[in-house]
Amino acid sequence: MGKLVLGCIADDFTGATDLANNLVRAGMRVVQAIGVPATPLDADVDAVVVALKSRTVAPAEAIAQSLDALRWLQAQGARQVYFKYCSTFDSTPQGNIGPVTEALMDALQCDFTVATPAFPDNKRTVFKGYLFAGDVLLNESGMQNHPLTPMTDANLVRVLQAQCTRKVGLIDHAVVARGVAAITERIAQLKSEGISIAIVDAVSNDDLLRLGPALAKMPLVTAGSGVAIGLPANFGLAPSSQASALPAAGGLRAVVSGSCSLATNRQVLDFIQRGGAALAIDPLRIAAGVDVAGEALAWAEPLVGKQPVLVYSTAEAGAVKSVQGKLGVEEAGAMVERTIAAIARGLVDQGVRQLVVAGGETSGACVQALGIAQMQIGPQIDPGVPWCHARAEAAQGAGVHIALKSGNFGGDDFFTKAFTVLA
Ligand code: ADP
């Protein structure tokens, strides 16, 4: 192979898909690996995104996982490394964005890198070093109340500096707006001041496209998924439909949903209102020991040969709270995830080869249950959600088309539209 140019390390699963999707749209052929692969790369691609689960683990563990991923990517010949984190800069006062960035800089002997979660397509913009989510500052966006990574300060220079031993500076919008020469000059100036990491302002895709060429020679780039749109051109790659080409789709079609987000609730309702075959599963019956997965598969079997089926635990906030009150938040979540994953596996046994999964954690559980180690990234269904193609142990190593939709992504008609995109 020997063609891999960009090696990416993502700190969570759906974030990895989001990055892969942006790279594909900018012209790269991309594979996403679930964890660090045990074997060499077996695909002809321009970029690999290694999906870790390192966002909220202890910093030392996040560093160990990331360095493991780096070694594998280097062994595959990656010429540049991209550390991907959330576009809301999700981290704790200890990290892990800062510690992982510095460990990667040490390993790559990289004396300067950038850090910017800007992703204007998703309304994440950075101005004067302050991160906005939509029209409000990060710390007014709801992220200040996040259960694991509360973000109480929108000033990213301050936030990142608190996680780093190296000095953190800013490349502000006035510089970015003037283009590559001005950005390069600013980087030289920051370096002369002893600064090694720069937050970069970007409020539009044009800003990110101006930033791209200035990053061409950096061994390490750290960012959300937005910066990805400006990188493929550095390797002579331009957007093309070939980048997202997947093998032809066949087999039966199904959707499983364990997401309870507002968007997913609307998508389930829309699918039912269009006359789709849908079955709700009840967490309390799982807790009572009923074989809910077996029931769902018996329900699906006579239907799935004729039309796409939907099996969902998706419920509105009040119902979810009530279940969580009875079973505990984590116990309810884990139980439903296991059940939906078993249903996904059973559906593949029934011949499903086009599967949509709704829910970030739910997706992780399903991918594991299906025995998928890596996915080729294909065409986008809605922003942030591409179809993928993967060999699945559950299908005796045959190919399955799979779309993994995190909570709030996708339009109301997502569960219908997804299959038309493949057809
Ligand atoms: P999202 O991407 O929308 O956050 P996730 O799959 O990441 O979706 O998370 C949803 C969580 O809620 C999962 O742990 C899932 O098992 C759990 N869950 C799903 N349905 C219910 C329900 N009806 N009651 C309680 N918990 C549920």
From TrEMBL:
UniProt domain Four-carbon acid sugar kinase nucleotide binding: residue ranges: 254-415
EC annotation from Swiss-Prot or TrEMBL: 2.7.1.217
Keywords: ATP-binding, Carbohydrate metabolism, Kinase, Nucleotide-binding, Transferase
Secretion signal, residue range per the UniProt entry: none
Domain Four-carbon acid sugar kinase N-terminal: start-end pairs: 6-230
Example of a GO MF term: ATP binding
Alphabetical list of Pfam families matching this protein: NBD_C (PF17042), SBD_N (PF07005)
Record bears the keyword NAD: no
Keyword Ribonucleoprotein part of the UniProt annotation: no
InterPro entries named among the record's database cross-references: 4-carb_acid_sugar_kinase_N, 4-carb_acid_sugar_kinase_N_sf, NBD_C, NBD_C_sf, OtnK
Superkingdom per UniProt: Bacteria
Catalytic activity reported: 3-dehydro-D-erythronate + ATP = 3-dehydro-4-O-phospho-D-erythronate + ADP + H(+); 3-dehydro-L-erythronate + ATP = 3-dehydro-4-O-phospho-L-erythronate + ADP + H(+)
Task of the protein: Catalyzes the ATP-dependent phosphorylation of 3-oxo-tetronate to 3-oxo-tetronate 4-phosphate.
Similarity comment text for this entry: Belongs to the four-carbon acid sugar kinase family.
Protein name: 3-oxo-tetronate kinase
Protein species of origin: Variovorax paradoxus
